[in-house]
Amino acid sequence: MALMVHLSVNVNKIAFLRNARNLDLPSVLWACETIIEAGAQGITVHPRPDERHIRPGDVTEIADLLKNHPGIEYNIEGNPLLPPFMELVRKVKPDQCTLVPDNPEAFTSDHGWSITPENRKLLDPILKEIHDLGARVSLFMDPDPAEIEKAGETGAERIELYTEPYAQAYGGPEGEAVFQKYAQAAAKAKEVGLELNAGHDLNLENLGKFATIPNLKEVSIGHALTADALRLGLAGAVGEYLRVLREAG
């Protein structure tokens, strides 16, 4: 029997709500505890330079919290060329670093890496440092087999497929064709020795089909899960996403 795809919950939107007032409400640490108790296998944060959601203090406090939860993976994602990403990685030594090529003004992550010679020169020393710190590296990628093949040459252990195009096409006339594009990208990742993560706009409606893709190890979900928590409660929302992943497996 296939192992269930792991769920890493992105707590950025919980921090975003907290930041709307000068109160620790909702508490990001409380949210992490609740998410873990509900059965999720990981916590994801994406600190950005403008601190509009996750702040550096959150990153270190969550790292301290997870010391009491062995087996729960800590995934820090972001652009390693922008502060404070690498400073935080050096400080907390997460389990996984997901490297994303977003710019400081990006509303949200909206594209994957192009593995050009110029980007290799930038990424190679960063990957080496992250590996020396003991963390796994995942590169945020579009479902482009040619780029994924080049990603296999970087030394990264995983890629995370950017799934907004899948989510936008889901249920429409192009939905199956787009899904097959992701399945082909996943096959290329396996061919070149990369394990597979996925994230962006996955939700309770579209996750089940995506989770049937072979080689998928982990999904990172934040916005939709936080929205579903308004109806289901945070623990209930985590439970529903885990149910969908179990059923897909």
Describe what you observe in this structure.
The chain is α/β, with parallel strands linked by helices and 249 residues long. It has a single domain, classed as TIM Barrel (Alpha-Beta Barrel). Helix content is 45%, strand content 16%. The model has no long low-confidence stretch (mean pLDDT 96).
Record keyword descriptors for this entry.
alpha/beta; TIM Barrel; eight-stranded parallel beta barrel; 16% strand; globular
Examine the coordinates and then state which fold CATH places here, giving the name of the CATH topology: TIM Barrel
- Give me the Rg, rounded: 17 Å
Give the SSE string: EHHEHEHEHEHEHHEHEHH
Uncertain parts: none
Q: Beta-sheet strand percentage?
A: 15-25%
Q: Which term fits the overall shape?
A: globular
Mean pLDDT: 96
- The strands making up the biggest β-sheet line up spatially as 1-2-3-4-5-6-7-8
Structural class, please?
Answer: alpha/beta
Q: Going by CATH, what is the homologous superfamily?
A: Aldolase class I
Task: Report how far apart the termini are.
Answer: 8 Å
Count the beta strands. Answer: 8
- According to CATH, what is the class? Alpha Beta
Biggest β-sheet description: 8 strands, parallel, barrel
Helix content: 40-55%
Q: Number of helix segments? A: 11
Whole-number total of structural domains: 1
Would you spell out the secondary-structure blueprint of this structure?
Elements: E1 6-10, H1 12-18, H2 28-37, E2 42-45, H3 56-66, E3 73-78, H4 85-92, E4 96-99, H5 117-132, E5 136-141, H6 145-151, E6 158-162, H7 164-169, H8 175-191, E7 195-199, H9 207-210, E8 216-221, H10 223-232, H11 234-248
Parallel strand pairs: 1-2, 1-8, 2-3, 3-4, 4-5, 5-6, 6-7, 7-8
Helix pairs in contact: 2-3, 10-11
